[in-house]
């Protein structure tokens, strides 16, 4: 008999009523009394389990009652509608075959486990309700991102992860080598001889695909990256990982306002798509992980995001009478406490803060005419703070060269980036969205380690 | 005036007839005579250019005639249908504004350039016809892959790129470190002290996400990865890169046959999707890159793939009378010459070769009852040879442990992989498809360096 997927049983229950089906999956719970029993199995295709009713008419009845949780089965039986029960149907088993008997020391027994403990069994945690929900939402959200951009004609661009230099001048990078670390070849000056390394020079893992993506935007107009990014920062927080996925769109013939429009649409699109395409999982999060989740997401999906300048934001924060741990002055980088105050207490919805002081922003951001600020904007959302950062990019060759020098960077390292300004510059803008940040926001999960299948953080590269 | 995208002009030409529009883009060609001129501009949204007609009624007529190729413009004008010409319409300009004047040393002049030369200007080559076509097809094909799996309920899984050990035992890996290579800390035995490294131990870049993906298949049933993979192999060929993208589906409750069905459907789906969604680009490849392309792709998309065993394949090759460079005996790994002979000369369509000798395949492939072969299958296609490799995975704990020992690997390194067999094993299968391999096949491009935006190969990590 052909296998029927549990997802189909839930989606077309009426169709299967009173008919014979065969399902396969893993035991989530098993209860039995003397002559009959109940098994909930999950077959991986759907968040919810199917209840199997079995009794002593089965020749292997006794063996089945003794099966450990997580044993895999195939079950033939009749679909019986149970409109008066919690679950809309159950399967009355006529035959149960054990595919793989689990061991009685299976760590995911019915009791609730801490998220910290579940991280130590990352190979098994997707079998729990919480992580089944998290990682299916991760998949649905990733597809939403691709769908959003493809529908708008953006070209998906795979920028390289291995880079020849720290081009963004941003933060700590992982070095990459095939040299024997026990016996590093040295040149005549006693320095590492990278000419003997795989690429013939020093290489690192990228911290951002932005500069590469700009080259493609100046050919395809609208492009996006969606891939892994790395930071070797020694920060042991709930929001930082050494390996994470970034979405970095770049748009030619686009100003700061255009980036904000696209970013606002993207965030709303992903939220709506996930709510529509993973409703069982989202109900679970709203009930068991974050009781205010649906209210928060509805608010974001249905409000027009606010837009204020950094200078206005600083004014508001200075006059609001709130005691901040980190005092506010024009010129500081806003801290999470400031960001959350603005979005949660003042605006009560997501806001873009625009036109930051140039000294706290990257060299490639477009200089405003005031000589003090750049055309940058961060998106702040209630409950989290910053979730998107972006800017108009400096397209004027002379100003860009001057900024590179001011920041103590080397022009030669950016020869190809500068040539984009030499050969048909246009206004262009782009932004970066940490995929895990939006996942945490959409699911209510509060630790980045719990939205990445096998997280890599300071001191930890297990599995 | 709002900007109209060139793609819209081509898709809804009738709608725009005789109306005023504004477009922006980069000059691809410019010709002028005394009182009028023609510019072809490309705005990045569509493979084809738009012809702009301008004359001396424009106040900046003279300046425009002197603009270098690749200068960026915005143009206002009237859409005029030209059914008698090569292009279906042109724009009669009423105003042309220069956004960014290019430099006259712009390297992509009209003459044809070699692919080798274009690799040295990887930041500009997407502006050429060939690479505009390649990288839009790359984007369209990537989306096809996601769409295929999402429509079938597969969960997209981001397996880690940083790994704690060489778990597949496959090939050379890149080491990853934050240690100071000029001053490597040593332990008391004089070896590298990895406890001082970022993760507190030795780490590498992954060569495959398969083992991690299996953990997710045993929770979600059907999953796929689609992400970067790395090989530090010193092989300077047209088919190998150090960084490339892999698609690795894993399916629980699935046998070898099920993997072959899904892989066959996937290859056909991607081909059909690209032909339907990038028709201009595919026409270009068929006309200028590979004149037999459409015939070849039609053959693949519309034939039932053949399936023969390795043992049958060896028999055919031994009896065929062909002189091979590498002689055929049962037990050898098939070479590209053998694979191409089978698929091009014998079957004249794609074939799966199944049940390879266990000694030439990986430890995780399921042992067949004959004691000599494993339930593996490679997909061979005309013109290329192997394009997909996969197998049923060994789900029997005792046999898997024995294989790990036989291969000289350490069981401790695979504790979590082995636990998948302990806690509810099921039959399961999966495969790997190199994304660049299928791109080369679909476009007719013959060097992997020409289907990756910024390729990384032995000795080369430019840009």
Automatic annotation (TrEMBL), chains A, B:
It is found in: Cytoplasm. The keyword Protein biosynthesis applies. It is an enzyme of class 6 (ligase). Keywords: Aminoacyl-tRNA synthetase, ATP-binding, Cytoplasm, Ligase, Nucleotide-binding, Protein biosynthesis. The keyword Nucleotide-binding applies. GO terms for biological process: asparaginyl-tRNA aminoacylation. Residues 144-453 form the Aminoacyl-transfer RNA synthetases class-II family profile domain. It holds the Pfam family tRNA-synt_2. It comes from the Bacteria. Belongs to the class-II aminoacyl-tRNA synthetase family. PANTHER family: ASPARAGINE--TRNA LIGASE, MITOCHONDRIAL-RELATED, ASPARTYL/LYSYL-TRNA SYNTHETASE. This is Asparagine--tRNA ligase. It comes from Clostridium muellerianum.
